[in-house]
Amino acid sequence: MNMRSALRLIPLMAIGAVAAFLLAGPLTSLYKSNAVASRPHPTATPTIDPHASPTSCPASLPTPKSPGTAPAVAVPALPFPIWVNDPLGVNLRSAASASSARLATLTQGTQATADQRAPDAAGKVWYHVRLGSQAGWVRSDFVSNTPLHAASGFGWSLMLPQGYLVGPSSDASTTTITRTGDDVPFLVVQTSTTNTLTVQLPASVRADLAPLADHSATIQVWSYTVNEQVARVALDSCKVTSAWARPDQGWPYTTSVYVHTGGRNYEFTFLTPDANSAVVTQVLNSVALS
Questions:
Q1: For residue 110, which of 84, 213, 244, 265 is within the disulfide window of CB 3.0 to 4.6 Å?
Q2: Domain ranges of the chain
Q3: Within 10 A of 156 (CB to CB), how many other CB atoms are there?
Q4: Alpha carbons 209 and 228: distance in angstroms, whole number
């Protein structure tokens, strides 16, 4: 190669070097971006809720294979307060026997203090109670060892445990009672002066699924012998988001009692986690009807 040809190549080499330099930055950036885009980013491990909210409504939980769980009933240590639950009051007697002398009659709602327990010949438990200057024995099934307060509606009255409240209603013939902290009503009381009464279940219960019958029994409410029907009903888990976490697994028991008197019809519908609720029995034992 002669000197002239060599001199001609110098400008071309300079141009090539400049072009290479200018391209190096974009290519490097492109490589880095592609490398970052293709590299998997670490992600937080998701927390999987085994009882996720339903994706369609209404949603039905599977029928439970086991009965509902009854809450444990604690036996209080003596002495403890008691409240008279029976609407006709309870007789205060001289001994733990229905045949012993009657000392007084304690009216419904009266509070006293139990300081002894004793069974009678039939196995019924009695409490020895003190009320001011009075003292005597009362049958345990006529009293409650939890605080009670009165509730009333159209032609009825009853006693409720502490924490159970009457909800507001625009219809005097229907009263809803709820337990504090529960999404599902505890009791719906309906009254009718006609020959017909249409039972109304809470909106949280699925009306499109038939109840599952559990058992029935003959009981006394006020002065009437009536039939008690117990069944399981499905909650709508779209309306009761805690349905899956309930002791009844989203299928509470309904205890339905219909009472017909001379001038009115009454329907008491309870919803509880267990089939033989002690609270239901206690409330029904306190009912007075007009």
A1: 84
A2: 80-142, 147-289
A3: 21
A4: 21
What is the assigned CATH class of domain 80-142? Answer: mainly beta
CA-based nearest residue to 110, from 54, 167, 148, 151: 148
Side chain identity at residue 170, one-letter code: S
DSSP the chain: --HHHHHHHHHHHHHHHHHHHHHHHHHHHHHHHHHHHHSPPP-PPPPP-TTPPPSSSS--PPPPSSPPPPPP---PPSSEEEEE--TT-EEEESSSSTTSPEEEEEPTT-EEEEEEEEE-TTS-EEEEEEETTEEEEEEGGGEESS-EEEEEETTEEEEEETTEEEPP-S-TTEEEEEETT-SS-SEEEEEESSS-------TTB-TTS--EEEEEEEEEETTEEEEEEEEE--B-TTT-TTGGGSTTTT--EEEEEEEE-SS-EEEEEEEESSSS-HHHHHHHHT-EE-
- Both tokens of 122, joined, read 């039939």
Most trustworthy range by pLDDT among 54-63, 83-92, 237-246 = 83-92
Assigned architecture for domain 147-289: 3-Layer(aba) Sandwich (3.40)
Q: Contact, 228 vs 219, CB < 8 A?
A: yes
Position of tokens 């639950």?
85
Closest CA to 131 of 75, 82, 76: 82
CA 214 to chain CA centroid, Å, is 19
Digit-coded pLDDT (tens) for 224-250:
999 999 999 999 988 898 898 888 989
Q: What is the reported pLDDT for 255?
A: 98
